[in-house]
Amino acid sequence: MREVRRVAVLGAGSWGTAFAKVMADSGREVVLWARRPEVAASINERHTNPDYMPGVELPALLTATGNAATALDGADAVVLAVPSQTLRANLETWRDMLPPGSTLVSLAKGVELGTLKRMSEVIIDVAGVAPDRVAVVSGPNLAREIAAEEPTATVIACSDHDRAVAFQHACTTGYFKSYTNTDVIGCELGGAGKNVIALACGMAAGMGYGHNTLASLITRGLAETARLGVELGADPLTFAGLAGLGDLVATCSSPLSRNRTFGERLGRGETLAQAEAANHGQVAEGVKSCTSICELGERHGVELPIADAVRRVCHEGLSAAEMGKELITRAPRPE
Question: What is the largest CA-CA distance in the chain?
Fold first, then answer.
């Protein structure tokens, strides 16, 4: 597998910018595609992305462009850093520009509405590439902390171990440590499921509940995500690692987590529209993914009580208080 020297990152939001910084700090030439020309100009002229990563100085090896073809030209790896529900539409416009043989890397965490495909499956479907060309990044990776160079770790998952290792070297720095895994299914479902469980934890916090409730939701949320993953062919051990428990704890506990803070607003009695308005017009990933994850569970006969309760709060008018009562009064059963 050839060394990854030049990287295109498509998407200049918080996580895309932070991950681009990691790879530039690792010595790679990184070109970041930004939808808005003013964002690209700020990165090139002032080495900062004030809209999504204010106060963070970006390295000189990181440049930006508003032209996707320019970003993709000659890239050894293409990092897709757009929201999960927009990945398909974006990739359709980039498909014919993807460099032959390049590694396609997903940063998105979700399950596509309608098709119920994981992000790697969407990439394979749209780009028409073999599964061993697609990798995913998943772990306890809060963008702001990574941009501040606080120590963290992640998982690079790819069915082609050598390809995962090649990309691993491209995103390893003194503050960011990467591990490899061949269990793409488990890593992706861990990343998608944690957003939904984080909404539930946020609701609990918004209602004033403490650490016992939080720990209970995290643990039982991990159990139901793992049940679904194993049914789909994942390795159960993956859910005890960085892409499972690690990501879940960070997302459910931190005020930097959009899903956690969005859930808190719902727990305090705000409507979905009010929470969205307070979130600068953005809906947390878990609000959309809860529907597709529940449908995926139903298709495979896997019970997902927390995810289903979150879905009904977000989309069917169930209150957070009613959700809590339903979950705590479910019929007793073995753990």
Answer: 61
Query: What domains appear along the chain, each with residue ranges and CATH number?
Result: 6-182 (3.40.50.720), 185-328 (1.10.1040.10)
Beta-carbon-side half-sphere exposure of residue 177 (alpha carbons within 13 Å): 6
Other residues' Cβ atoms within 10 Å of the Cβ of residue 301: 7
Residue 332 has pLDDT above 90, yes or no: no
Q: Which residues of 162-177 are buried (b: 16+ CB within 10 A; e: fewer)?
A: ebbebbbebbbbeebe
DSSP 125: H
Backbone angles phi and psi of 252, in degrees to 5? -80, -20
Catalytic positions are 194
Res 202 pLDDT > 90: yes
Query: How does pLDDT run across 314-324, given as a tens digit for each residue?
Result: 999 999 999 99
What 8-state DSSP symbol labels residue 53?
B
Report d(CA 320, CA 225) in Å as an integer: 21
Structure tokens at 148: 């501040």
In this predicted structure, what is the pLDDT of residue 64?
A: 98
Q: Which residues pair with 214 in a beta bridge?
A: none
Cα separation, 180 vs 184, in Å, equals: 10
Residue 135: strand pairing partners: 105, 158
Stated pTM of the model: 0.95
* Each residue's pLDDT tens digit, 82-114: 999 999 999 999 999 999 999 999 999 999 999
3-class SS shares of the chain: helix, strand, coil, % to 5: 55, 15, 35
